[in-house]
Design goal:
This protein has 13 helices and 17 strands. Helix 4 crosses helix 7 and helix 10 crosses helix 13.
Length: about 425
């Protein structure tokens, strides 16, 4: 069988055996109305309003969107435009906590008697993909059953980026909820089987899952080899089912749905309690962190509050939200954590590389999991040759960063690919394609 390319990374998983702790809610939360891929929400509250924990404070009529909820109780102090990590302005609701964490009366267990009820409940929960991408979960669940036949739910427990262990802790601490979420999806969407993929360096999670799924033959646990980017959606599908998602197609086109373990755990808890997505587990680690750990934090917590809980040897000169391969550097200590933030990585003396000319070694081509040609894509982007970019299938790039990681010339290949995709999108929009 054709084997996808991959690379080996040091895992630095110093927090994997640390039980998740809870951080005190901050004095102020800054809750962005753009917490996911798709249309941002509009605030449903005004300055001066008193809001309670779990109360809806933002929503949109767009299908590709999910509501946003208050992560503390308190008064809305401000609604302002904030520069997000992607450089775009987004409306943000600032709430001053009253430290009472009063629960909204809207928090109640949803009634689910049908597929439609289930999808509606998931939307109301504010659920998005917690593995990093932030795709609104209800959109994934509401696929057209006349167009697609999904026979396999793939559960992503790979967590193959260095440092991050938040999903692993979900598997170890919240196993019953993860399995409960799997069963809810299978039942309400009538998906006959599920496959849980976990990397081989997590033997305790594999053993625990196998023991608990033994009475349920429809749920299979598979040990994945340790490789990067094993947890990428298309890679996981190919590894676990030998099916290939072609350019411009979706997992549903090959009969698959992929869900992250933390997302599944949250869905089960929401259906059981009615508490929307107002907190999440994050990993705090890096080369200056004395005690790597996992914490539950309120959505909208400012970055500086989180850093204050970290035991540091020195002040960081680089802060990454997410993993070192696909995360984003934070440029402002007031940056609020979002639903999709799964890690805060703190570094000092981070290396700065001066790129040199390409030596045509081909390492980037051999590293690309979907067999793209990063060097040719770089040339096409530099020449602003959109026809070549399309022919070279830049749209398939998943921004895993493997090409940049292996490049001996330290060229910014992965970054160029993202700029190239934006260039191609703008060109096609301009030309009406």
């Amino acid at each position: 069988m054709f084997r996808l390319h991959s690379i080996k990374l040091p895992h630095h998983s110093g927090s994997e055996e640390q039980t998740t702790r809870r951080l005190q809610p901050p004095k102020m939360v800054y809750i962005s109305m753009a917490q996911h891929i798709g249309a941002p929400c509009e605030p449903t509250v005004a300055v001066g309003d008193y809001v309670k924990l779990g109360e809806k404070i933002g929503d949109s009529e767009a299908f590709m969107s999910a509501p946003v909820h208050a992560s503390v109780s308190g008064y809305v102090k401000e609604i302002k435009e904030v520069v997000a990590l992607n450089g775009r302005l987004c409306k943000t609701v600032v709430i001053e906590s009253d430290n009472r964490m009063q629960l909204s009366p809207d928090i109640k267990q949803p009634t689910v008697n049908s597929r439609e009820d289930f999808i509606k409940a998931v939307r109301e929960s504010g659920a998005v993909g917690l593995g990093g991408a932030g795709f609104p979960t209800h959109v994934k669940l509401a696929y057209d059953r006349e167009k697609y036949t999904i026979d396999t739910l793939l559960v992503n427990g790979a967590e193959c980026e260095p440092y991050i262990t938040s999903d692993y802790r979900e598997l170890m601490e919240n196993t019953d909820s993860v399995l409960g979420g799997i069963k809810l999806i299978m039942k309400n969407l009538e998906i006959p089987r599920a496959i849980i993929g976990v990397e081989e360096d997590k033997p305790e999670a594999l053993e625990k899952l196998r023991k608990l799924t033994a009475p349920t033959p429809a749920i299979k646990v598979v040990k994945l080899r340790r490789a990067y980017p094993q947890g990428a959606e298309k890679v996981l599908i190919h590894t676990l089912t030998h099916r290939t998602v072609k350019e411009g197609k979706l997992p549903a086109d090959v009969g698959c749905m992929v869900m992250n373990v933390s997302t599944l755990g949250f869905i089960h808890n929401y259906i059981r309690t009615g508490m929307p997505l107002v907190k999440r587990r994050i990993t705090i680690d890096g080369n200056i962190v004395n005690a790597p750990a996992n914490f539950y934090v309120s959505v909208g917590t400012p970055l500086h509050d989180v850093i204050g809980y970290a035991s540091l040897r020195t002040q960081p000169d680089k802060v990454i939200l997410g993993g070192p391969m696909m995360g984003n550097c934070a440029f402002d200590p007031d940056t609020p954590l979002s639903k999709t933030t799964n890690a805060v990585l703190l570094f000092a003396d981070a290396p700065v590389y001066d790129p040199s000319p390409c030596i045509r070694c081909g390492r980037c081509v051999r590293a690309c999991p979907i067999n793209l040609m990063p060097t040719e894509l770089e040339h096409a982007y530099d020449a602003r040759d959109t026809a070549a970019l399309k022919k070279l299938k830049v749209g398939l790039c998943m921004n895993c960063g493997s090409c940049s990681y292996v490049c001996p010339a330290k060229r910014s290949l992965a970054e160029k690919n993202q700029l190239a995709k934006e260039l191609l999108r703008n060109s096609e929009a301009k030309n009406g394609k």
